[in-house]
Structures are given as structure tokens and as C-alpha cells.
Design goal:
Helix content: over 70%
Shape: globular
Oligomer: single chain
Order of helices and strands: HHHHHHHHHHH
Strand content: under 5%
Largest sheet: none
């Protein structure tokens, strides 16, 4: 964020400055942990001569396939949304979608952060055979996610206009479109956390296939299908509602997998 301001606003490097800021952010994020792990420390985590373990590496790749699918799908779905918005709403539609994505990334990061942070705890209790702890974690997590989802939805609905004004307050028509679209898009926050946590939960149980299926259906199939089909019936409104429909379908799939796998994981 500091790089964007410095390189674009101060040095006037335009889009190239934004790219450089993003690249430097990744460099810093990569160097800091390398320095920590390269030095001697009191923990058992440090860089050393590796030993080849193909079976473990293959298992890690399979189990992490849901995260791979999510990242690939995010780019493809983003391009589909922009293409549809250019067709039905023009440049204003793309600008409105970009504004919504800023808030969307922040809110979804909360779900992703909780799911990723809780995964080692779930894995530990699964490996230790603590079935009651797993059940408790699952129930408590869904309560936390439900409360967070409702709060996010409420904030989005009440703050749709002010948040849109921060980014597109310079254009009244664009501001109205963004606030309206954001108020619709906000309904997706009621459902997104459940499927995100569900995918991470199965990853933590070392069930990479189920996790990848949830991620694939949620981020690629359902969203792509919805954004391609719904505008044919409802025009631009269909684009804004498509994410809500896709998230509802993803929740249904997640709950179905939890029901189907309940005996295997108790």
C-alpha cells in the first residue's frame, strides 16, 4: 500500500509503479521468513540439507490441490465477470466490480485466515483420534463463521454507499451503480464462510479430493455458470446476483459432503 502511494502518487510511475509495489511486497514477504529459518533458533524449524520423500510431497500436492484450484479459479472467474460486465454495463460495470472486490478480498480473508489458522488444530486432533474434539471444533467454528457472516453482511448493507464513495465518489452515476451492486453482492457473505471453512476442514483431515471438489465447484463451476447464464435472463442484475446463487450452491455441496463423510470421520 505504501509502495502504491509512493510510486504512483509521488514518483508518477503509473501502472508500472503499482506492479513494482506488488513485486516488492512479495519480496519482503519472502525474505523475512528465509532470514528466520536460515539462522539457528531454539525451535526445530530451520533450513537444513533436505531428504527426498516423494510420497509425502505427492500427498502434500494432492491435499493442497483445493488451494491451487481456488487461485486459478479466482483469475478465470474475474475475467468472466469483467467480460460480462463490459457487455452488459460497460466500463462503469467493470469499475463497480473492481471496487466491490477490494472489500470482498478483505472479508473473505477473514474466513480464509480463520480456516487456515484452525487447520493445524483440526489435523492434530484428527491424528490423535480425538473425535469429540473434532466435533466440538466443527460446531464452534460454524457458530463463529455464522456470527461473522451476519456481521459482515450487516456492515456491507449499512456501509455500501460510504464504502463505494471512497473509491468512486467522483462520479454520481458510477457511485449509485456500485452501491446498488454492493448491496446485492453483500448477501454472498452470508454463505461464503461455510464453504471456505468446509474446504479447509477436509484439507486438515487429509481428504484433498473432497476439499478440491468443494473449491472447484464453488469457485469455478458454480460462479462461472451463474455469471454466464443469469445475465441472459436478468441482464446486469443477473451478474450481481450470480455470486449469491453460486455461494448458496457451494454451501449445499459442503453440507452434503459433511453428511456423507460423517461416518468416516465420526
Amino acid at each position: 500500500m505504501i509502495g502504491d502511494v509512493l510510486f504512483m502518487a509521488v514518483f508518477k510511475w503509473d501502472v508500472a509503479g503499482a506492479a513494482l509495489a506488488s513485486a516488492l511486497g512479495q519480496v519482503v514477504g519472502g525474505i523475512v521468513p528465509l532470514i528466520y529459518f536460515a539462522r539457528k533458533n531454539s525451535s526445530c524449524f530451520m533450513l537444513c540439507k533436505p531428504v527426498w520423500d516423494g510420497k509425502s510431497l505427492a500427498g502434500v500436492c494432492v491435499n493442497g490441490s483445493s488451494e491451487l484450484m481456488s487461485n486459478i479459479s479466482m483469475s478465470l472467474v474475474g475475467m468472466l465477470y469483467n467480460s460480462q460486465l463490459m457487455k452488459y454495463a460497460g466500463e462503469n460495470g467493470v469499475a463497480a466490480y473492481g471496487t466491490i472486490m477490494y472489500v470482498n478480498f478483505i472479508f473473505l480473508a477473514i474466513f480464509i485466515g480463520y480456516s487456515t489458522g484452525g487447520a493445524p488444530i483440526i489435523s492434530y486432533h484428527y491424528g490423535a483420534g480425538n473425535k469429540s474434539e473434532l466435533t466440538g471444533l466443527l460446531k464452534k467454528s460454524f457458530v463463529i463463521i455464522f456470527v461473522s457472516s451476519v456481521c459482515m453482511f450487516a456492515v456491507s448493507e449499512f456501509m455500501a454507499l460510504p464504502l463505494a464513495g471512497i473509491f468512486v465518489g467522483y462520479d454520481a452515476v458510477l457511485l449509485d451503480m456500485t452501491a446498488h451492486a454492493f448491496a446485492i453482492y453483500a448477501f454472498s457473505f452470508l454463505f461464503a464462510g461455510t464453504s471456505i471453512f468446509g474446504s479447509a476442514f477436509f484439507t486438515a483431515l487429509n481428504d484433498g479430493l473432497t476439499s478440491a471438489l468443494i473449491a472447484f465447484l464453488r469457485t469455478l463451476l458454480f460462479q462461472s455458470a451463474a455469471v454466464m447464464i443469469m445475465p441472459l435472463i436478468w441482464g446486469t442484475e443477473g451478474i450481481w446476483y450470480s455470486i449469491v446463487v453460486a455461494e448458496i450452491m457451494a454451501v449445499a455441496v459442503t453440507l452434503a459432503f459433511l453428511f456423507i463423510k460423517r461416518k468416516k470421520y465420526r
